[in-house]
Amino acid sequence: MALRILERIFRLVLGTLFIYAGYTKLRNPFLFEMAVDSYRLLPATGVILVARSLPWLEVALGGLLISGWKLRYAAAFTALLLGGFLGAMAVAYAGGVEANCGCFSMEERISPLTLARDSLLFAMALSLAVYSWKKQTAQFSSTPNPG
Fold first, then answer.
1. What is the largest CA-CA distance in the chain?
2. How confident is the model at residue 42 (pLDDT cuts 50, 70, 90)?
3. Confidence band, pLDDT 50/70/90 cuts, at residue 60
4. For 36, what's the count of Cα atoms within 13 Å in the CB-facing half-sphere?
5. Count of domains forming the chain
6. Which residue in 50, 39, 46 sits closest to 96, CA to CA?
7. 141 within a domain of the structure (yes/no)
8. Nearest to residue 88, comparing CAs of 26, 32, 145, 40?
9. H or E stretch including 17?
């Protein structure tokens, strides 16, 4: 029972944050493109591709997480995406790059606080993914075999 409540809380928190993050990026696409470029990790074409597709992906993932549709896939992809964000932020911060996070505001610099926040979100997404895959596996194993 407690795990189901935690699952719903994680779904709503992550889904809402992803929709909000995508929305803020869609409102200021050029500022977000500059934030992606500030990481100094991608060539110009990669920056443009990420800046134009990531906000839409975040909104879609947020909707999937909130609705619970295909949850194990959405949660797993969310965990992978947050792990990638966290890795890019850590590389930029460790390299002394003064990059804008680009997470929720185009004026937020990468700092230990942003790394801690994204680590928490990554842990939530990873927990949600593991729980949803285990729940699905348990449902399949408890189904009687008609053969």
1. 62
2. very high
3. very high
4. 21
5. 1
6. 39
7. no
8. 40
9. helix 2-27
Question: What is the rounded (10 degree) CA torsion for 100, 29, 116, 120?
Answer: -170
Domain of residue 24, residue span? 2-136
Residue 95 is classified by DSSP as T
Structure-token pair, residue 4: 């189901």
d(Cα 34, Cα 56) in Å, to the nearest integer? 17
Beta-bridge mates of residue 100: 109
Distance CA 34, CA 36 (A): 5
Percent with pLDDT over 70 in the chain: 93
Considering the domain boundaries, does residue 144 fall inside one?
no
Alpha carbon distance 106, 116 (integer Å): 18
* Confidence (pTM): 0.87
The secondary structure of 105-147 as a DSSP string is -TT-B--HHHHHHHHHHHHHHHHHHHHHHHHHHHHHHHSPP--
Residue 39 lies in a domain: yes
